[in-house]
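Workshop exercise sheet. Pairs work together: one partner reads the sequence aloud, the other fills in the structure field after running the prediction. Swap roles for the next sheet.
Pair: D.N. / O.F.
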Amino acid sequence: MRRKFVVIAGVAAAAVVAGGATVAGAANTPPGGDQPLSGTELQQAGDAALAHTGGGTVTEAEVENGPGSAYEVEVQSPDGSRVEVNLDSSYKVSGVEGPEHDDDSSGLALNAADRDKAASAALAKVGQGTVSEVEREGGAYEVEIRLDNGSQVEAQVGGDFQALSQSAPEFDDD
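Structure field:
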C-alpha cells in the first residue's frame, strides 16, 4: 500500500497564486515513494491541473511513474471535493480521478463562478431561502435550497444557468 505524506509548512511550502487559484504544497515522501514537484515543474503542472478543474488549490504534486502519466496533481475544488489530475510529460491531461469525474458529468470540478451562477438562478426561481448544496449533474446543475420554514426544495438549473424546475417543499425526516 502506497502512503503519501504531505507537509505544508509556512516557509517550506511552495505557494503560487495564479488567476485567483492557489498552488501550495511541499511533500515529504518515504524512500521509494513518488518524488514531489518543485519550481518550474510544480508551477506548470499546477497551472495545467487548475485549468482543467476550473480552479481550486493544488494540495499535492508529484512525479508519477504510471503508463501515460508523468505527473500527478491533487486539486481541492472550491466545493471541498478532491480531484486527481494526471498529466503527460508535456503537461497535457492524460486522466482524471475523483468525485467530480463520473459518466454523467463533464469531468470538470464545479468552480466557484458556476456554483454562484447556478445558486443565483435557483434562488430567483424559488424566491427565498439559503442554498445548501450545488452539484453538477451532466450538463446541468442541481441546487438544494433550505427555505425559511425549515423545508427544503431542489431546483434544476440548465447549463445556460436558466432555472428549469423546482420540487415541492419537503421537510427532513431527521
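Discussion prompt: The chain has two domains: 14-97, 112-166. What would you look at next?
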